[in-house]
Structures are given as C-alpha cells and as structure tokens.
Specification:
The chain is of the alpha/beta class and 488 residues long. Helices cover 31% and strands 14% of the residues. It has 13 helices and 16 strands. A 10-stranded mixed beta sheet has the order 6-5-4-3-2-1-14-13-10-7. A two-stranded antiparallel ribbon has the order 8-9. Helix 4 crosses helix 5. The radius of gyration is 23 Å and the shape is globular. It starts with 11 loop residues before the first strand and ends with a helix. The relative contact order is 0.14.
Length: 488
C-alpha cells in the first residue's frame, strides 16, 4: 500500500497489452477477496467478471469453490499463498510439492488457467516486525521447484506481492530510490531469483493511504487529473504520487542492476467508506483516471511502457480486519452483493454491469422501536454487542452513515447484526429496544443492508466469521461508543 504505509487488502485488475493499446483496454480482472460473512456464490462472481470483460483474477488463497467456478471460464488466475503458510513451505520442499499438487496441478488439470502463484502477501511490512523475513524467500524457492517438478515451470510463474515500503528515498525524490537498508540484501536475492526464473516483481501502491496517513498531504497530488504543484526531480516533473512512487522503485532497480526487471502493480485503488476521504466521489475520480491512463497506454516518466495494473478491488468484504482502518472493508468497485457503487467508463463505451441471479433474505429490517429511548440503560450495551458481531464501519466519522442521529445509529447497528445472523428470529431482540419493519430505513448515502440468502446459494467453505474475525471489531466499537455518546 503506498510507500511508508502499512497493510494492503482485496483488488480489481485492469490488464492491457502494449500492442493492443490502440484498441483500448484488452481485458479486466479482479482480486477476488473472500473475507465476507455472506459471500456471493462463486458462479455468480465468475459471471460478474465475464459480463464486465474481466479476463484475469487474483485469489488471495486457493479457495476450492472459487477455483472450481473458474474452470474453463476463459479467465486467467493468480493464486495467492497466505503468509501463515510460509513457514511450512519454507521448511521442506516436499510441503511445497504437496501444496502445488493439491492447489495448482489439480485445478490446472480441471481447466483452471493458472498463470501465477503469488507467494505471500506484503511479507516485509514493518508492522510485521520481521515475522516472515526468513521464510518468504525459501518458500518462493520451494514453490518454484515444486512447479518445475509438476511440469508447470513454463506455464505458471512465481511472484511476491510486496508493499511499496520495501523501497524508499532519502531525498524524497524518485531518483534517489533504493531498497530499505534492513532488507536490501534479501530484496536483491529475491529479484535475481525472479529474474532468473522469468518471474515478475509485484508492488502494491496506494495513493489513498498517503492522504489517509498525512492530513497535510495535497489532495490533488493523490489523483491523476489534479492541479497540485508538481514535484520536480531533475528534468522530470511529477504531477501525481502514483508516478512518483512507481519511479522510486524503478530508480531502485536501476541502481542495483535490474533496470529491465518486469514490474506489475499488484494493488491500487480507492475505498468508498470508513473514512472522510474514502467516498464514492474520490473513488470514481481515482479509478476513472487510472483507467483513462491505461486506455491511452500511458506509462510513467521512467517507464513509458505501462505496467499491468491490478485495481483493488472487485467486491467489498465485511469480515476483513479493520486494524489498518475502517475503510478496509470498502475497497470494492461493487458492493458485497455485486451491486454497482458508481459507474466507470471502461473503454469502448462500456460501463459496469451488476451481478445477476443474487438471492436475498426477506425485505425486512431490524430497527430501534419507535417507543424506545436512548436513555435506556441497555441502549449502549446493545449497540456494542451488535457491532461486535457485525460490520458497523459505515457509522464512523465522515462515513456514509456518519450523520445519523442516535436512534438511527442504533437501528443501523441492530440491522447489521440481524442481517449478519441471517434474520434469525432471536437476532432482533435487544432488550425490548428493537422491532422488525418492512419499511426500508435507508436514507441518503446510508444503506441499511439486506444480506444474501446463503440457503439459496452454495456457500464457500471455511469463510464463516471466525472468532479472530469477530475480535477485529473491538477498536471500532470503542470509536462508535464515543460517537454515540457525543450524539446523545
């Protein structure tokens, strides 16, 4: 996620080929994240991608349901390996051989067009405190060996999606770019290995996080069509942080003898909720600007040939960690159910098309009873309980539901719990504070959700809300308590 910033998350890929740029975008793809309490049926997601011209997708893990749905779809796949698997994969090449057999070879034989294995996910983030420092490269080497043994060495390439904080610039200018001193030697070993095996270096860049981390960051410099004062670096003037960040990496590669190393942008995008700067207006502006560059075939000052760019992300995920910020659950171009958040011109006059065939729970909502009072002694604890087990990130300051009064805040929290619990009869019982209504309480930018009916869809395995996932809500609860206290 942008230089000096921690964490990343789930993405939407725009892929284009240099020889086809005169024809516009060659295809679209997404990083399909699965951290949702009510995930879309895999076949619906694959149809969503195909309807919108997506021909590449990245999975953060080898999810069986997703991979089965992608078989014979015409969509190229990048399969991610989670960081928690690095240690066993690094410790023994046989573990890597078994992993490739079970998660790559098996699905290739069933018609899944797997092109990349993404080993780890931003493993060298400073916030990880060297947890994966000694296992990432050995795991990469063992996975490469396993692919060769499986006869897939030419068909399937390896990469490591890295956060942009693996490089830096002492002067603050791209031309001074170099890799972080603490991992410089390791980065050289990884880059040489990728180069020797015709792999690709993958970097995640997040202009949004530059704005999120620094209130004094010039807003227009985060976008491609802004009017911010340019950053002058010798003969080059940088008008946006994306170009400056990417060229800092190119300078680092050139400085260390890898000036021609292929580079992909693994993640780049803009969230739509959970922070004042995470909104639909900014997301549309950023992502449309990015698409326009791709359609024009525009690279960066130091690399005129545009890279493959993965925009983050396809759909929202309501069960992701909010440790980096409440915006983490709102990166999708589509809502969790495949509904369109905002339109984009995808080239050739095409716009986005929503998901089809989605089945929902009944059109009813759990809200605060008209006769209930915010002074009820159970009021605050009821909201806290609801937001412990459901996603209340839209209630934060500057978010889509941030302007609600205390009763509407409670209604939103109660409803999210009620929907997350599949409208179970006892899930709208908050100490006599709540009631069920068939009148949609949504207003303005605030959507009171109705969840997907999992009983009418195939539910992917292993993606139910976990205890760890539920605990991730606690920082949000404290913030919500403060907001509601101020309102009351």
């Amino acid at each position: 996620m942008g230089k000096g910033n921690g964490y990343m998350l789930c993405l939407f890929l725009v892929f284009f080929l240099g020889e086809g740029l005169s024809k516009g975008v060659q295809g679209l793809a997404c990083n399909w994240g699965l951290q949702s309490t009510h995930p879309l049926q895999p076949s619906i997601v694959v149809k969503l991608m195909k309807d919108n011209g997506f021909n590449k997708v990245k999975l953060f893990e080898a999810d069986p349901g997703a991979l089965r749905a992608l078989a014979n779809s015409g969509i190229q796949v990048m399969v991610g390996i989670p960081n928690e698997l690095l240690a066993p994969l690094a410790s023994n090449v046989n573990n890597a051989i078994n992993y490739v057999k079970q998660n790559i070879s098996t699905y290739v034989s069933k018609g899944v067009d797997i092109r990349y294995v993404a080993v780890a996910n931003e493993p060298f983030l400073k916030t990880y405190k060297d947890t994966f420092l000694h296992t990432t490269f050995p795991a990469l080497q063992n996975i490469q060996a396993a692919l060769i043994k499986a006869g897939l060495g030419k068909q399937v390439k390896v990469t490591i999606p890295l956060n942009a904080d693996v490089y830096e610039s002492e002067s603050g200018l791209p031309s001074s770019g170099d890799f972080r001193p603490d991992i410089h030697g390791l980065m050289m070993s990884i880059i040489k290995f990728l180069s020797d095996n015709r792999g690709v270096l993958t970097i995640n860049i997040y202009p949004f996080l530059s704005l999120y981390a620094d209130p004094n960051f010039p807003v227009d410099y985060a976008f491609f069509n802004g009017s911010a004062a340019p950053v002058v670096d010798g003969s080059i003037s940088y008008t946006n942080v994306f170009d400056a960040n990417f060229d800092t990496l190119i300078s680092a590669l050139e400085k260390n003898g890898f000036g021609s190393m292929p580079v992909m942008i693994g993640e780049v995008g803009w969230p739509t909720d959970g922070d004042p700067n995470a909104n639909i207006e900014y997301a549309r502006r950023f992502n449309q600007g990015l698409l326009d560059r791709i359609i024009r075939g525009q690279g960066t000052p130091k690399r005129s040939t545009p890279p493959e760019v993965y925009l983050f992300s396809l759909i929202d995920e309501d069960n992701k960690s909010v440790q980096p910020g409440n915006f983490e659950r709102h990166w999708g171009v589509f809502y969790y159910d495949g509904a369109i958040k905002y339109q984009l011109n995808m080239g050739n006059g095409r716009g986005l098309i929503p998901a089809k065939g989605v089945k929902y729970l009944a059109r009813q909502w759990c809200v605060m009873s008209p006769g209930a009072s915010t002074s009820d002694p159970n009021f605050q604890n009821s909201i806290n309980y609801a937001c412990t087990y459901a996603d209340c990130t839209s209630l934060g300051y500057g978010s889509s539901c941030g302007n609600l009064d205390a009763k509407s805040n409670a209604s939103y929290a109660f409803n999210m719990y009620y929907q997350t619990m599949n409208q179970r009869k006892d899930s709208c019982s908050f100490s006599n504070l709540s009631t069920i209504t068939t009148v949609n309480p949504s207003r303005g930018t605030c959507r009171y959700e109705i969840m997907i009916d999992l009983g009418k869809h195939e539910r992917p395995s292993n993606h139910a809300p976990s205890a760890a996932g539920r605990k991730q809500h606690y920082p949000l609860i404290m913030a919500l308590v403060l907001v509601l206290t101020l309102i009351v």
